[in-house]
Amino acid sequence: MRVPAQRLSAMAVGALALLGAVPYAAVSAHAAVPNDADTELIIDSSSANGVTHGVSGVWPGSLQTVLIGGRPDLIEFDVSHIPTAGTPLTLMSLVTAPAGQELTVGRTYSTTDSPAPTANFTGYSTCYSSTFRFDELTFTEGRVTNAQIEFSANCGGPLHGLLRYHATVPLPAGAPTGVQLTGAPGVPVGSVAPISFKRGDALVSNPGSGVDGAVVAKEPAEDYRSPVQTWSPLGNRLFYYNDKGLYAARPDGSEPVLVRNGGLSEIPPEAAISPDGSTVVVADPFVSVYPTDGSAATSNADFQIQIQVPELTATLSDRIQFEHPRFLPDGSLLLTVAHSTGDHPSPDRSLYRYANGAAKRLIADANWGTPSPDGSRIAFVRTDSAGVHQLFVVGADGTSGLTQLTHGADDVSEPSWSPDGKLLAYSDAAYREVVEINAATGAPVGSIPNATSPVWTPPIIDSHVIREWGSDRVSTAVAASQLNFAAHGDAGDPRRVTAGAVVLSRSDTFADALGGSALAVRKNAPLLITDPARLDPAVKAEIGRVLAPGGTVYLLGGTAALSPAVASALSAYHVVRLSGETRYDTAVQIAKQISPNPRTVMVASGDNYPDALAAGAVGEPVLLTSGATMPKETAAYLNALNPDRSAANGTAIVTIGGPGDTALVAAYKGGKLPKWPSTVTRTKLAGNDRYATALMVAQTFFTSNTDVALATGGTWPDALSGGAMVGHRGGPLLLTDPAGISPALLSYLRSQSASLFALHLLGGPAALPNTIANQAAGVIGVPGHVVIDGFTPGGKYPFAAKTPDAADTERPGPSTHAVPMTQ
């Protein structure tokens, strides 16, 4: 059995490094007993060998008897009471050098030698056709003090394994796992950075200090599928799959959220998370896409992507399957495409880049494509001339800088980059060992025994609870504008966008502004408020900051709502007044400005504010009712629509809250919508109270958000401007009682944590006390990694190329809560 040189450096030389490591100094008080020391044994074998399958571990000498002795021409070893699922195993072997020779490090001894080595596994059967290779062998005063021995045998089936032994400095129980250890010249054993991996039937997260980390997920005994793992970009959620489905949990395995139910495939699917944390892509072996927040966990909808591969002309005998999805930083997807035909059932594999609906081949004859964190390089696996799977690195173009990093006799797979792009980890198939190497040179830097499926853990990026507020309602609206919009002409602002317009409403009542949030979202505009009689100086200054002269300012309401003096103060801009005789008519005029052919309209009460404001963040037209009564202006607008969303010009009808829904149904049944067909379905989003209704809007229209906003349900000004602000960022407006966040809302916020970077509290402590901030902080991120009030307007978001959504396209319509109009 031959082992690649670089793996031996990490394993064999690294074993010596382990023994002199400073982190293990505390165990040196345990006196070493000659020929009775801690031993590591790893066995990988066929289940048909009649001996054992997959035994591995590190055992203290006080529990097991370890005898290794002999002289330079003869070695015998006896490791007793090895724990197994059945009878404890005993390994006994004798290796003798040919006559007149000494045992040599690096040489393999087999049954063709004379005398032939033997291996016996007590309690089972005698093994034959044995071979032994000494990777390390040290004698001190006539006894073996250090050995690393690879062995193989036929015990009714193939068996091979690795024995590490050192007689002078015992290892602590459980080591090595994932802590960097030094002692030998620059070659550690253990992980050089936080990492997760599979060990046995469990996922182990971030081991350290010489012991395993948290067991995040454990494979059920009856399930032959293996858990898989991937991390959210924020580093606060580990995604894994078992027979129950795909889950996202905190790094310690707590608070699991079901992302997708089980039964996706009999093949263990692989998952990748988009750079903004919002989407998980699963290849099983077709490609499906799900939101990371679990909103599609139990849906029967088809989330499969139809990917065309032009280079592969499929015939009836062709089979194309997708494997190993990985996102590049720009949001495109790297996939291994396995192609087989009836004549060639063994698939050919190549790497493809999928973007904008098309897949293009990037690297031929390649598997396990994994981009570096900055996207400049791609690690992949390719078979060499000897048929061994080796690890390569190439530039992002698929051709430049091609470098082969491994050259040994063991197959490698499952490459993973360290967060800084300097290191790579991979699985070594021969011994189920994770090996870590320098990504530029291939030099070994660490190893983790009895481990597979490495995934380096990204550093946890702090989540934020940000309070958006000012000294009054006017300045709070200005603060919301400053979060989203750069100064006009400032093309160098990396995280804020240029405003497309400004929406202006009165500051003393909500009547004309209820449809204004949606207009602001759609027009890529801040929503500001001012005194009806005059333009507030702070508002004028903010308009001058975000909007160049000649830009459009929408005034909501007639001259009684915003006086001619306000319009006159805006003479440098193009002023568009949207008004009607009533608040209902004004809402209609706003709706027409948003879209002449809307795909979705929202119907909510205009006599109160909560339902309409929650709806406004969606960015679709909001039509108003007079409580449970349908105004004639609203009915006329609705009657002109085709309420069949499936039609080319159809519009989905969504009611927000009980009064709006009651008004629509009564109008339909009362003949006020005569052009509507006899069979009409609307989406009804009506909770038990205003808080539950706002949550239903969020659950229906928003998934896997980077931002959400939370406002008091007791007043309207903060929710008005804040709803426009967060809708522009692609997130929902949520309402809460200032006395505390409801369990249902806390659960929703927790489900968003894989992508949620910022929760915006709208208003000062008088509106939302600090207890609300603390409640929210407890669920949106990892404890110790949530910052309350520490983010400035225009501050850097963690996601590559992430800027607030401009909301220039219509949002997807609702797919749940459909109710016939007759009910």
Description:
Pfam families: CW_binding_2, PD40. Keywords: Signal. InterPro entries: 6-blade_b-propeller_TolB-like, Bact_Sporulation_Assoc, Cell_wall-bd_2, WD40. There is one protein chain. A hairpin with a 3-residue loop joins strand 19 and strand 20. The chain is elongated, with a radius of gyration of 33 Å. The protein has about 800 residues and is of the alpha+beta class. The protein contains 13 helices and 47 strands. Residues about 1-40, about 60-65, about 170-190, about 220-225 and about 790-815 have low confidence and may be disordered. It starts with a helix and ends with a strand. The protein has three domains: about 30-165; about 195-455, Neuraminidase (6 Propeller); about 465-790, no CATH class. Helix content is about 15%, strand content about 35%. Helix 2 runs parallel beside helix 11 (about 715-730), helix 3 (about 515-520) runs parallel beside helix 11 (about 715-730) and helix 7 (about 610-615) runs parallel beside helix 11 (about 715-730). Strands 1, 2, 3, 4, 5, 6, 7, 8, 9 and 10 form a ten-stranded antiparallel sheet that branches.
